[in-house]
Amino acid sequence: MATTEKDAVTGRYTTGHEWDGIKELNTPLPRWWVYVFYATIVWSIGYWVVYPAWPSLTGYTKGLWNWSARGDLVTEMATVQAGKQVWNARFDGASLSDIVKDRELLTYAIAGGRTVFAENCAPCHGSGGAGAFGYPTLADDEWIWGGTLDDIHQTIAYGVRNANEESRQGEMPRFGTDQILDAQQIGAVADYVVSLSKGASDAAAAKAGETLFAENCSSCHGERGEGMAALGAPALDNAIWLYKGGKDAIAAQIANPRHGSMPAWSERLDATTIKQLAVYVHSLGGGK
Ligand code: HEC
Ligand code: HEC
After folding, report:
1. What are 165-187's pLDDT values in tens digits?
2. Is residue 254 a contact partner of residue 176, using CB atoms and an 8 Å limit?
3. To test the ligand 1 pocket, which listed residue (117, 120, 121) has its Cβ within 8 A of the most ligand atoms?
4. How far apart are CA 212 and CA 188, in angstroms?
5. CA of 109 to the centre of ligand 1 (A)
6. Which residues of 184-203 are buried (b: 16+ CB within 10 A; e: fewer)?
7. Nearest CA to ligand 2 atom 34
8. Residue-wise pLDDT tens digits, 197-242
9. Ligand 1 centre from 215 Cα, in Å?
10. For residue 118, which of 226, 276, 266 has the smallest C-alpha distance?
11. Which of 60, 94, 230, 282 has the most CB atoms lying inside 10 A of its own CB?
């Protein structure tokens, strides 16, 4: 209860409450503050009416506008999906060589391919296609099974040494295990392979290995070890190895080849995705 008594020091009215001679000043809330406070109450009531607000035993009050976060998401997803369909239709209609010539399609393919690659391929081929022992590097311009867009597409779609009819096949004889060559011959031909890739090697043994190579190896790996994509025989005349360089590792491969395999991805991924992957992988190493 406001009184008419004024405080002598501040010149303000007091509330009339008094404790041990101390009187309480009457300091009302600023008017603007009170109006804002009322306005928020009015606003909240409007909000309850229009938007979903109060929980009930069976659900919640839906509000006049029938808005829901999930409804918003559904609309948004439909818009994205429609946009994607337009893209996919354009993408599916284009050939691999058209795609790399069209900046937009190329960007679309690489963005999609990169994501799928990280999930499905990186566990074997390393992130960005860096490669690992037995899993070829995809980020260089050497290709075991060919580096054109079509070659890469074929390899990804049907895989390597698996049960799919279209799979890449190609096996190297087990020169040691099947006793085609003895240990000394294997050593000599390994020396020759090292010399092809210009590593340090025993010149005399390499010379002896040259004839053995021509007789046993060149039909697949080429006369100078340049490799043959049709047979999946890697080039041996450079420092890029599927397994390992160095005489011992090469001798081990000659004695008992490992024959890695890769699944046919067309059995697991759709055609659009395989296309995106082919373009992405081709872009990594510059392809051929
Ligand atoms: C289970 C392991 C594994 C996975 C997963 C895998 N690959 Fe491979 N990939 C291989 C092996 C092994 C080879 C080589 C086999 C050989 O020639 O000896 C290979 C070869 C390739 C080649 C041929 C390289 C060349 O030099 O010709 C391409 C291209 C390729 N993979 C792409 C992919 C893509 C794209 C994916 C993901 C969709 C993938 N790989 C997933 C194991 C794998
Ligand atoms: C019938 C075809 C064929 C013949 C013959 C052949 N190779 Fe191979 N070679 C291959 C294939 C296919 C691979 C990949 C095999 C694998 O993944 O194990 C390979 C892989 C290799 C590699 C591993 C290359 C790397 O990058 O790590 C070496 C080394 C090699 N061969 C050496 C030889 C030598 C030496 C001979 C002859 C004594 C020979 N090969 C005969 C088909 C052949």
Report:
1. 999 999 999 999 999 999 999 99
2. yes
3. 121
4. 8
5. 19
6. ebbbbbbbbbbbbbeeebbe
7. 217
8. 877 777 888 888 999 999 999 999 999 999 999 999 999 999 899 9
9. 30
10. 276
11. 282
